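To: structure desk
From: M.T.
Subject: fold request, one chain
Message: Could you run this one when you get a chance? Sequence is below, nothing fancy, just the single chain.
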Amino acid sequence: MQPAAKAKEGKHKKTRASKIKTEGGGGDADDFDAWMKSRQLIKPDDQLELTEAELGEEVTKVLTPTNTNVVRNLVVFSFKEGEFVPAPLPGNTVTLISFAGNSLHVDSEEARIQIEESDEIGYPLPMPNYSVVEQRETIVDGEEEGEGEGEEDEKSEGGGKPTAADDEEAEEEEDEEGKQTEGGTETEPGADDEDAPAGAPQTAAAPSKKRKLINQFNYCERATLTYVNPKRNVDTQTIPPPRSQFGGTVLQWIIYDSYQEDFEEQQKASGRTSIKGKAKKTFKKKTALAEMLNRKYLRCWQILERMINQNIYDDIGNDYRYWEDPADEFREGEGNLLPLWKFQYEKTKKMNVTEIVFNPAYYDLFAVCFGSHDFLKQPNEGYLCLFTVKNPSFPDYIIQTDCGVMCCDIHPNYPFLIVLGLYDGNVCVYDLRDGCKDPMYVSRGVNCKHGECVWQIRWGPDMSDGEINFFSVSSDGCVFQWILMQNKLWVTTIITLYLENEVADGPDGTKVILKTGGSCLQFHPFDNNVFLVGTECGFIYKCSTLFSSKYLMTYNAHNMSVYRIDFNRFDSNIFVSCSGDWRVKVWEDMRPDPLFIFDLGSAVGDVKWAPYSSTVFAAVTTEGKVHVFDLNVNKYKPICVQAVVPKRKNKLTRIAFNEKLHFIVVGDEKGVTTSLKLSPNLRAMVKPPKKQLYLDQTTLQNAKLEKLLSLVRELPEGAVVADPASTVRS
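Reply: Done. Structure tokens follow.
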């Protein structure tokens, strides 16, 4: 028998002897029975009796980690897709605690790589599962053989207990076996072959060196003591301060005098500082008083200037109020215009009048915009001047901008707010109460402005939350809404003007919808959501602020750019338009064809309905003439044509009616604004019938217009035209 087998047999003998000792040492059969009784299961009386087949049946239960409290029909809005999409469901795993660790599983790939890199492990590396199973099987077989041999030896010895000598012999055999195995590793393979018998099998190769596995939890604490620097005392010696001995007698009045001197010095120091502070305060007060005095002086000088002008232009002032042309009695169906004042500013002599707007609260105050309609000769500055008929010599307010002012509008509820549209596409809002130097709001940035010139601008009704807003149209084909926020202007695109059924081929073969530039804008008098837009292609689009997908109506109005649109003051379904194709057309809402067409012989710059009559409107042309129409008097030609400026040297650009008095204001290309008084035939009112004297002027004007339209419209069968009211001079 080999030494290893002997050592193994001795070990089994030792364990067998220990088992025999414990069994014969003191166990009792009664204790074993009591222990077995305690291990028996106690069944309740009402337990269900099952058969062997039922007991052997397997019952499968599936546990799923589904969270039943998760909301599965939740949706969110996707701005990318433009619709509501289902929200992703949260996971069913609920993490209670999570922390990072440094432990690795022994069988993992990272642990294997770490072992190969370090070449040391703290304990034997476990084998794979299949090798472990085979090793256990070999060990079990060896134990069974060893137990069998041990039993035979015990039987041969008579079944007695093993003695201490047997234990010592077994330990010596184990030591000899360990020495032999160690010696076997040191000897050469040749020597082993010689010592071994011929029939014995060759032994396996010696096992490799044990490697240690790094374990983050097995560690040892180490402490070191650093060298303590020795302490050192540093002393320095300085020169002692000078000393002097003083002696004197201190009496009560000496102490009092010293306190008095110190108090006087403090008063002098505080007096100097207070004088400086007082000087600053007095300077501020003087500047504030000077500003107040300047304002008062300016107000007084304005009043004196108005008084002087009224004395100078006394005749014109009387005509402005009381002029009546007696010649109208002999001219049936015709009238004329009486020139009154000319308003101009020295710095705007070479600029064009681009807009004229009357103030809704002060009937004698109107705003005039100065810019240029010539794209090749744009000035480096623009002006907005507010004139009053009480002082025609100089404007009351002057606003200067960096480029030409193309349009403006005054807020109907806040007459001190005025908005400007500039040539470079920007807009700005001024508050006349705070001065005219700096605007209250200005559009800034590339995305917060129009791409081209702003042609017209209009205030909109206040929003539901009280915010003030306005609308603008430009040559870039966009209609913007501007909202006055607390610190900035917020812009929104209301509609982009595309040509209907106009598609062109792009450079890459794609179809491109053509845009058109906007030239004028006018809101409906009663429906604030509806507005008309005139374009540079001659179309008039009826749009809505509620949606921008399509037009409510398209009017094929003119052959050239539409310059201005104006609604009738008495019937909101009637509006008039003018264009550069020499024509003025009167339209009815939702009718594709115009009711009246007038050819004026030259480009028409502006047209306006009269505020006092439902059938009177006026237009200005590039020939320098003013045309006044009264459809109730003559449906084919104007009742007044009068030249205001020379034909070859100047052109008229804008016109505006005064809301209270019967006079108009026209502007030309030389920066001059002229006021004209209407003769009695041009401002004739409607006389009510004898049996209906209670009717007001609004009802009579509507009836007059309705009769006029009934003559133009196609009447249904059996319809009868009502007798209208007659027209008399006022």
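Reply (cont.): DSSP finds ten helices and 34 strands in the chain. Let me know if you need anything else for the meeting.
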